[in-house]
Design a protein that fits this description.
Length: 418
């Protein structure tokens, strides 16, 4: 996949353990962490983390902000010396005098103002829109790779990451499943974004001039049939993100190439919309997960979803038993994904079979519709634990229940009609 060099400031992946400041010229180091360090292979991992969680009133992050609102220090150290409230910035003053209320003790706010939210791509990417939907008024931080977004949160450069995990047409974004396992962030929410693709080119470029269409692999996959219907049987090239493709065309004045990206990307990078709504299905939607350093406290007063990952040394034969633990409790599954078990990709079947046969080892990811605060979910997981050699709860979080309808073509649509 071609890597384009965007002109906007973003967090970058670097090979050197350098600075981690989100500036155009500075790079973030991803390190070479071994998978096992973050996998947490203990059988009781999910139980201990949820036991700790349920005994906690507030997260570390929340308690730090509570401390700062009580004593005026952002570093969390107590200062009992009276301070001059008037010397503080106006937005700080009210905080100092307001006593703690029950709302201060509830999980992190959903509105997201002042939150720094890492996403993969450049401005105009769908991931940026998803970050804004998940946390309105947040400060969106572009990152050049998914892994950088994970690290930005781990290193406290960002408070949250919003990353795509699956699309209704293009399927799963496998890289993020692997990274969820390798890193220790928690899923604290999900957001579904209708994805409305446009074909973008430099002003004056006509469809007949095109020799190439570039986009994120998901963008190309989601528009595959429509491109053919439009007679665009030209080279299709994968790049890092949809808006990055638009930026590349604009920055390099490439006149034989079109990008599949959003109408907002057209606006930002000064491109024209040659065709609007070119996704193969009008209801095209991508599901993103919101990630944080701390899990949220699961609740039962609204629909929750829980995401887990598990494995077993004896391979796939355990799957039926695991799934039955949910079926018997009427817990609906919303997603099953399998990925190679990178720690043990292949197992030789030795003993009686003399080491010739081998089977592939998988990690199974399951999302189910229940909260970890519910007894039926806890019982199901206790049973799953019996059948598996590795089990981790990735998060228990509110389901995105917002309704959406297929988006109509935008009014700026120009030359091609579908
Ligand atoms: O390239 C972008 O604009 C992205 O935000 C990435 C991404 C993805 O990874 O699936 C997000 C949503 C769309 O499905 C297409 C691409």
């Amino acid at each position: 996949m071609r890597t384009l060099l965007p002109s906007s400031p973003m967090l970058r992946y670097s090979q050197s353990p350098a600075t981690v400041t989100p500036s155009r010229r500075r790079f973030i180091h991803c390190g070479n962490r071994s998978d096992s360090s973050a996998i947490g292979s203990s059988r009781s991992d999910w139980q201990s983390s949820w036991a700790i969680l349920s005994s906690k009133v507030v997260s570390q992050e929340q308690s730090e902000s509570l401390l700062s609102s009580v004593n005026g220090h952002s570093n969390g150290s107590l200062n009992l010396v009276p301070f001059d409230n008037n010397s503080l910035a106006p937005n700080q003053q009210s905080k100092k005098t307001t006593p703690l209320s029950i709302t201060d003790l509830s999980p992190a706010p959903m509105h997201g103002s002042n939150l720094r939210v890492a996403y993969q791509g450049v401005p105009g990417a769908y991931s940026e829109a998803a970050a804004g939907k998940a946390y309105p008024n947040c400060q969106a931080i572009p990152c050049d790779q998914f892994e950088v977004a994970f690290q930005a949160v781990e290193l406290w450069i960002a408070d949250r990451a919003v990353l795509p995990v699956e699309n209704s047409l293009g399927g799963s974004i496998h890289r993020n499943y692997d990274l969820l396992l390798r890193h220790r962030l928690h899923i604290v929410g999900e957001v579904q974004l209708p994805v409305h693709h446009c074909l973008l080119a430099l002003p004056g470029v006509r469809k007949e001039f095109l020799t190439r269409v570039i986009s994120h692999p998901q963008g190309l996959a989601q528009c595959e049939h429509t491109l053919t219907k439009l007679g665009l049987n030209v080279a299709r090239e994968a790049v890092d993100d949809t808006a990055g493709a638009a930026e590349f065309i604009a920055a390099n004045n490439v006149r034989d190439t079109a990008a599949i990206a959003s109408a907002r990307a057209a606006e930002i990078y000064g491109l024209e919309i040659l065709a609007d709504g070119i996704q193969d299905d009008a209801s095209n939607v991508t599901r993103f997960v919101m990630l944080a350093r701390e899990p949220i406290i699961p609740r039962t007063d609204r629909p929750f979803k829980t995401s887990i990952v598990f494995a077993h040394e004896k391979g796939t034969c355990v799957l039926f038993k695991v799934l039955s633990a949910f079926a018997f409790r009427n817990i609906s599954l919303t997603k099953i994904e399998s990925r190679p078990n990178h720690n043990v990709p292949i197992r030789l079947v030795d003993e009686a079979n003399v080491g010739t046969a081998k089977h592939f080892e998988y990690m199974f990811y399951v999302d189910f519709e229940a909260s970890m605060a519910e007894a039926r979910a806890q019982n199901a997981l206790s049973e799953v634990q019996e059948f598996t050699s590795f089990l981790r709860v990735l998060g228990s979080y509110p389901m995105d229940m917002t309704s959406w309808s297929p988006s109509p073509p935008s009014s700026s649509s120009s030359t091609l009609s579908l």
